[in-house]
């Protein structure tokens, strides 16, 4: 038997590494097991998010967005320059630099906080035991009073489009294209599909997005989703709704995709195809036979509101449990679980978790949409404000989009905030804070905002709930 710990965390992604650091900060002897190995054969931390997900995709989104700004919009604001050209290898190099800095930062934080990093594949073999198998196949068993499973998730693969190296790829493979494909297909018009489609569309690809659902971004308020769809179409994304992929074939190094829509059977040919139809929990092999930890029919580990499993000493967080598959949700669960293990009272407000699509403009939301509230039988008042009426947005040459605030008609409590616009992912924090503190729309309306700032659009949308918006014609009778 190897060393004994107070806490062993399996997985060093955004949930796992945060849980490990928090536990160590609370005085618990903590280890974190990670199996991710980079191209050089070195174990790296950060999981999907830092290595092949959130962080590298944002690097390419930023690079490609700045390229489009320079190519299409600098002249509009008085900057004349020769037509820029994208340097994809250099963009990939920058992306890797961003990855390296982030994963290196986690290793440094482990050392600074006294977290023991264990390289290898972790498996719960008992209520207080974790078996770790290293790259050479050697297994070592560690003892821990508490175990936190933070194994994450992996992309869903679908039978009609089996992954084929370099041609049919998942989200990770889409970050590795060494040149811009002329014709790019994307299956799935969700967060990942829209972001990756945007990257390569900006760099010159003809992008077709095939989405099986009939509604575009059903989790977003309809007014926001409708405006976003129009903008993405204007940018060159050909989004086909109600398109159900039925098969694919590789011909002459091209991908022929078959799908059905309202018009019947269709066929389209791409140079590359990205499959972005969602993610599934990575739990197979993580929980040993006989441990007794319950999983649901989809492979998610069953937990309560504080992420306890049915085995008292075992917790699970992040993508491998219920709820949204979001890095920040996993991180907050990691903090909560560490606090619970240390004997503190802790909980999470799952109603106030923001979501962001990092397109340009960005789409961000928290809480209910107007449609959600009405479906729940809640009478609401809403207020909207366009960025085209915001001074800073106009000065930024970014007038697209709007802010929408949804409030309970009886109590005025903020139920949701939805934003389409530049830096929506930053602005949504105001809505999150408002909901976390149980604020009313009037609370936001009575708050003094800096001028000029795009955040004033949130202020005006809150004012508009009661028909009091200053910088737009009021459509409601003042109360």
From TrEMBL:
Keywords: Cytoplasm, Disulfide bond, FAD, Flavoprotein, NAD, Nucleotide-binding, Oxidoreductase, Redox-active center. Pfam families: Pyr_redox_2 (PF07992), Pyr_redox_dim (PF02852). InterPro entries: Class-I_Pyr_Nuc-Dis_Oxidored, FAD/NAD-bd_sf, FAD/NAD-binding_dom, FAD/NAD-linked_Rdtase_dimer_sf, Lipoamide_DH, Pyr_nuc-diS_OxRdtase, Pyr_nucl-diS_OxRdtase_dimer, Pyr_OxRdtase_I_AS. It is found in: Cytoplasm. Its EC number is 1.8.1.4. Residues 353-462 form the Pyridine nucleotide-disulphide oxidoreductase dimerisation domain. GO terms for molecular function: dihydrolipoyl dehydrogenase (NADH) activity; flavin adenine dinucleotide binding. The active site is at 451 (proton acceptor). Residues 5-334 form the FAD/NAD(P)-binding domain. One of its GO terms (cellular component) is cytoplasm. It catalyses: N(6)-[(R)-dihydrolipoyl]-L-lysyl-[protein] + NAD(+) = N(6)-[(R)-lipoyl]-L-lysyl-[protein] + NADH + H(+). NAD(+) binds at residues 188-195, 211, 278. Binds 1 FAD per subunit. FAD binds at residues 58, 122, 319, 325-328. The keyword tRNA-binding does not apply. Its cofactor is FAD. GO terms for biological process: 2-oxoglutarate metabolic process. Belongs to the class-I pyridine nucleotide-disulfide oxidoreductase family. The active site is a redox-active disulfide bond. PANTHER family: DIHYDROLIPOYL DEHYDROGENASE, DISULFIDE OXIDOREDUCTASE. This is Dihydrolipoyl dehydrogenase. It comes from Halomonas halmophila. The gene is lpdG.
